[in-house]
Each structure stands twice: as C-alpha cells, then as structure tokens.
Amino acid sequence: MIDLHYWTTPNGHKITIFLEESGLPYRTVPVNISKGDQFKPEFLAIFPNNRIPAIVDREPKGGGAPLSVFESGAILLYLGEKTGKFIPSDIRGRVEVLQWMFWQVGGLGPMAGQNHHFGQYASRWRSHIRACRSTPSHGASPTRTRSMSGSEAGSTPKGSGRMAA
Ligand SMILES: N[C@@H](CCC(=O)N[C@@H](CS)C(=O)NCC(=O)O)C(=O)O
After folding, report:
1. Mean pLDDT for the stretch of residues 1-29
2. Hey, how many other C-beta atoms are within 10 angstroms of the C-beta on 122?
3. Using a 6 Å cutoff on CB, does residue 105 contact ligand 1?
4. Count of domains in the chain?
5. CA distances from 133 to 15, 16, 165 (A)
6. In a domain, 124, yes or no
7. How far is the CA of 109 from the centre of ligand 1 (A)?
C-alpha cells in the first residue's frame, strides 16, 4: 500500500494519474497547502522539503521498513521501477521517457509554478511591501518581519497593505 501525501495541484495529479493507471493500491493523505499543513512537524519529519506530492511505500521491494520519497520526478521513477510500468527497461525507451520527465520537472514545471506564484500571490505582496516601505518609521519593525514570514509560509497579507508599527 502506498500512502500519497497529496493536495489537488498539478504536481499532485502527476502521482494520482500514475497510481490510477498502474492499478497500484494507494490511499491519499490530504495535505492542505493553503492552510500550511506542509509545515507541520509531523510532515517535515518525513518530507523535509515541505512540499507535496510525497509518498510512503509501506511494502517496498525487498521488504524492510516503509520507504518515503518526495519530489514528483523521483516518485514517478520509483513507482515506474517498482511496477515495471511506464518506464521501459531497454536503454532507448528508457532515455526517451527520462528526457521528457526531466524536461517536465526541471523546465516546464518550475516555469509554470513561478508564473502562477508571481501572477497570483507575489503581485499582492508587491503592493503590500511597497506600502510598508513608503512609511520610513515602519522600516524593519518586528511586526513587518513577522507578517512577511507569515506570507512566505503561504498566507496572504491582510488589511490595506499598511501595517501598524
Ligand atoms: N519540484 C517539486 C515541486 C513540488 C511543489 O512545488 N509542490 C507544491 C504544490 S504543487 C507545494 O507543495 N507547495 C507548498 C509550499 O511551497 O509551501 C516536485 O516536482 O514535486
């Protein structure tokens, strides 16, 4: 049985598509990244990169302790090798699959992710940060520092954009 630590994002879907297509038994463990579940100590203890998707294979090949894997590309490769599906064993077929997988995880994925991040979230931060900087007395107040680290942890700035000192 595979535990899939998951939220409904394109990176999460990559793994559900593989699992559904391969017929491997799995259960989903929701990680609400909008609420910051990925920063909970119990999640970080297994997956230090604070991101979904991530899996725990409770029956790894060869037996032994449950095996955890994070990063969608590493998970896809792990599951491909575990099941013998979607990753050919001959060198030419293998290269064909791996080059497109690396293209996706190293090129298209991050570009699309950053486009979404800067278009949807950072644009809100920009006006927030500009408003803070326009008031010198708000320079490096602890409130601002706290608020900015809150934003980095996934929440969006609240209020009009100007913070109390
Ligand atoms: N390179 C990673 C990217 C994973 C990723 O960015 N996951 C996002 C959701 S699609 C996430 O968990 N974000 C939470 C955060 O950054 O705090 C992969 O391919 O698995």
Report:
1. 97
2. 14
3. yes
4. 2
5. 42, 44, 12
6. yes
7. 10
Is position 114 within any domain? Answer: no
Q: Which of 26-30, 58-62, 68-72, 149-153 is predicted least confidently?
A: 149-153
CATH of residue 84's domain is 3.40.30.10
32 and 64 part of one domain = yes
Quote the CA–CA distance of 160 and 165 in Å, as a whole number. Answer: 14
Expressed in angstroms and rounded, the spacing between residue 121 Cα and the centre of ligand 1 is 15
Report helix angle 10-22 to 109-116, nearest 10. Answer: 140
Ligand 1 contact via 52 beta carbon (within 6 Å): yes
**Whole-structure pTM value:** 0.77
Residue partners of 119: CB distance under 8 A and separation at least 6: none
Specify if 140 maps to a domain: yes
pLDDT of residue 134: 65
> Residues 95-140: pLDDT tens digits?
999 999 999 999 999 999 888 888 877 776 666 666 666 665 544 4
The range of the structural domain enclosing residue 131 comes to 120-165
Taking the centre of ligand 1 as the mean of its atom positions, its distance from the CA of residue 117, in whole angstroms, is 11
Looking from the CA of residue 109, the nearest atom of ligand 1 is: 19
Ligand 1 touching residue 106 (CB < 6 A): no
Give a yes or no: residue 113 inside a domain: no
* Contact 36 CB / ligand 1 (< 6 Å): no
* Ligand 1 centroid – CA 123 distance (Å): 19
